[in-house]
């Protein structure tokens, strides 16, 4: 029985390794064979190591931490919960990519939560790969604990952030990318005599350039704004992201109560996915703007230009709420 169980475990690990290598290959991440096997086995252990420990021992340890070292306990739970959430997103992301590649499902058939994972994980692949590789190293949990305290934004993904950190980090990221990448795109549109003050209701009347007609410099700024690798995915990556955003907008448009039922964290996430600044807006204002956005950005003919419309929407926010720094 022992030999049979060991063989069964080896087979399962081999299947998992093959699966993870395919995922890395699809996302243009190259690792050595030894590192690939280690990373795949690590992914499996990410949550199972915690779950397989005797519940009494883990409960006693956490009770000891919460009683004697409450701050350490908070960090401990952030690391454990972050690992579980990260691993859950990895599994979902791989399954979605596999379904789309094998035509099991079309992208138009995905749920809102699945579209959100596709959009977010694609931006975080490098950090996720680093986390997965370093997890098996002894005492790594202490390294992650230090990262949670001192370098959460630089090293870790949103899975390990607090609600306040997610709100602040996303807002700062939007402000930084706006300064660097939005202004050149605004000048480009002004050079084409595009009225940047056009309200959303009249966007259908605008004649905007197709992304394929933009210069390399402007495509680069557009790619950086939306965190798409221009040199790897090119214009196809921008089109793919625009289509996912359009479908995400559709899921909100067809569900009348979806936006009204959102909490602040969900609103921050929706604004960040669309690269729309929310700093200085109230919850009511965010819901109003998001409703306007999905109402006017769901037409199929907008898929090719939606990343450009985002720049015009910045001015809609400024005009409506008289905000200065967006």
From TrEMBL:
GO terms for molecular function: ribosome binding. Residues 153-326 form the Letm1 RBD domain. Keywords: Membrane, Mitochondrion, Transmembrane, Transmembrane helix. The chain crosses the membrane at residues 128-151. InterPro entries: LETM1-like_RBD (IPR033122). PROSITE patterns: LETM1_RBD. This is Letm1 RBD domain-containing protein. It comes from Thelazia callipaeda (Oriental eyeworm).
